[in-house]
């Protein structure tokens, strides 16, 4: 993964990074350099890493040079990212603590280490809260909260035995901090996961860093089906200040950054990757609504 326009002073604080040898100068005359996050030979776990957001996360770590171990309840279709030579798929139900322990033990026996665990598995069907059965409530909570707890518990002793310890990244959602009608239990489970993230970051410091990436709306293969036809999809995208849904790879890039030494002093954080959130709905009905239309390019530098 590559980031540009970092000053030399910013770079001096980072360790374990491969830095390009060609400095450049930005528009303000400041000397800059390109930074490459190199995770070569690091072993990364990604739950639900074969499709959707998970596939974007898997690809991002592959781009950074890592070896990626992914899992899921069903075997992925042929030709997907699970066929990559640096990816190994295991059929695991992460809601089952015993299966998770067996998966981690298998990875350790083959790879000898586990450097990063990304708890991505999750999701929920749409439905009113009062229509959900007790079994439904339990299943959604197990998938979106307890599964991450199972993985964190399983990798902790492995990481603690390693000289470089390790990093955990939990995938949460903006639904954790705003009303989520239709997916109320999902939002509550993600809120619990954000709370767990902060608590484990403190309990396991300074050895294991635990952070979270909070996703907004993401343009996965099934997004158009979820939001309706293309016109509906575009209207949904227009509610986001950036005017578009996130790409799965953008979620992956955030995970790589948090897992790398570039974030060596970041733990207990929840990084929002949501394009600025949502335009407040009431603004469209105010007299000044037109003044808040997206900025035109010609106003760039108006205050310079």
From TrEMBL:
GO molecular function, one term: 2-deoxy-D-gluconate 3-dehydrogenase activity
EC nos: 1.1.1.125
Keywords noted in UniProt: Oxidoreductase
One Pfam family it belongs to: adh_short_C2
Keyword Lyase: no
Ranges of residues in domain Ketoreductase: 42-227
Domain of life: Bacteria
Keyword Oxidoreductase recorded: yes
Broad EC category: oxidoreductase
InterPro entries found in the cross-reference section: KR_dom (IPR057326), NAD(P)-bd_dom_sf (IPR036291), Sc_DH/Rdtase_CS (IPR020904), SDR_fam (IPR002347)
PANTHER family: SHORT-CHAIN DEHYDROGENASES/REDUCTASES FAMILY MEMBER
Protein family: Belongs to the short-chain dehydrogenases/reductases (SDR) family.
Name listed for the protein in its UniProt record: 2-deoxy-D-gluconate 3-dehydrogenase
């Amino acid at each position: 993964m590559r980031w540009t326009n970092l000053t030399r002073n910013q770079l001096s604080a980072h360790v374990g990074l491969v830095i390009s040898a060609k400095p450049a100068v930005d528009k303000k005359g400041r000397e800059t350099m390109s930074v490459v996050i190199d995770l070569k030979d690091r072993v990364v776990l990604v739950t639900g890493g074969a499709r959707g957001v998970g596939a974007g996360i898997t690809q991002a770590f592959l781009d950074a040079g890592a070896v990626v171990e992914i899992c899921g309840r069903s075997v992925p279709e042929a030709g997907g990212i699970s066929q990559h030579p640096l990816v190994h798929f295991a059929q695991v139900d992460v809601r089952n603590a015993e299966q998770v322990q067996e998966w981690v033990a298998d990875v350790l026996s083959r790879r000898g280490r586990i450097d990063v665990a990304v708890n991505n598995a999750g999701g929920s069907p749409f439905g009113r809260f009062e229509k959900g059965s007790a079994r439904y409530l339990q299943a959604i909570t197990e998938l979106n909260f307890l599964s991450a707890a199972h993985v964190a518990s399983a990798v902790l002793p492995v990481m603690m035995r390693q000289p470089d310890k390790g990093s955990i990244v939990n995938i949460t959602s903006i639904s954790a901090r705003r009303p989520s009608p239709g997916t109320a239990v999902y939002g509550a489970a993600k809120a619990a996961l954000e709370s767990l993230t902060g608590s484990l970051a403190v309990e396991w410091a300074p050895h294991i860093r635990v952070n979270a990436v909070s996703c907004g709306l993401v343009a996965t293969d099934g997004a158009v089906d979820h939001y309706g036809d293309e016109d509906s999809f575009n209207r949904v995208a227009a509610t986001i200040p950036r005017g578009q849904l996130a790409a799965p790879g953008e979620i992956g890039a955030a995970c790589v950054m948090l897992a790398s030494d570039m974030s060596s002093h970041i733990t207990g954080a929840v990084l929002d990757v949501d394009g600025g959130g949502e335009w407040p709905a009431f603004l469209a009905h105010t007299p000044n609504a037109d003044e808040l239309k997206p900025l035109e390019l010609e106003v760039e530098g108006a205050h310079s």
